[in-house]
From TrEMBL:
GO terms for molecular function: mannosyltransferase activity. It comes from Papilio xuthus. Transmembrane segments: none annotated. InterPro entries: TMTC_O-mannosyltransferase. PANTHER family: PROTEIN O-MANNOSYL-TRANSFERASE TMTC2. This is Transmembrane and TPR repeat-containing protein CG4341. Signal peptide: none annotated.
Amino acid sequence: MEQWVTAASALLAFLLYYNTLDAGFVYDDRRAILSNPDVIGHTPIKALFENDFWGTPLTDPGSHGSYRPLCVASYRLNYALSGFKPWSYHFLNILFHSVATALVVTTARRLLPAYCTRVGSAVAGLSFAAHPIHTEAVAGVVGRADLAACNFFLLSFLLYCEHSRLRNEHQRKPCRHITKDLTHRQLSINVQILRFSCHGFFEQIATNFRKLLKASKIGTPVMKTCDVDSGTLKLKKCQCNSDVSAYSYELMQWFTLAGTLLFATAATLCKEPGIMVVPLCILYDLLRDTRHDESSLKGALCIATSARTAASCAASCSTIPLSPLNNM
């Protein structure tokens, strides 16, 4: 069902703008494409990273200042494949819009509550595909900067969501081995409500890189045993303490975080507002960790209350005097 919603939304996005394939170059398309030396190949590839969106050097006083080399590179690719035939430029715009619609459905499915995931993701995808606010971006070739930035923006955010999921799952993963009684457990609550670190856009990169270098030194897990009275009880390997499992999570966290930064950079190089995915990831991490810490605090308080009640009951029962047997 979920795949059908994604496919239907992307197909609707394509069909609604299919008629733009017969359109030509209009307004800013002429200056950005027809008269842009970076598009028609009159300049070397490195000039894409030295000129602005319109082909003017950034050091020129008359430069517009818009720095979008990846978008200009896509125009150059279109020109290399089909010259100045406008249908190929419009086709790539429609394709970008369809992919962005599919990514919106995936993002909605990731963020919405479980009870409204199906309906909510369908509404989000179909609304995004058909909303008239996207007409200028899709129908005009220069609107590709918005379309490409939107795709990289969503990819970056989705990768960070996966990074956050892997990190939290690894931290909460229970150790499946024999434990002591509840009365011997020590309960430790460490709540960080206002944690605003994004868990490593800078410091976790270095941490994960060190763990990446240690991955080649992983050894095989050792089977643990413990003696119980006269017998020996063999325990299965503890999944929580397994080096292989731990390092696999660390590697996945590293790759998803690196992908987040890579796509965030690509979104910015398509259009400047793409950099806003970084504060969005920080805000998402803050809200997610706050909610997780609050739920963990509630669960910990419930366990502590239960343990305290059980201990009080045991203490009160031990103080009750026992009647002599001869009085029965």
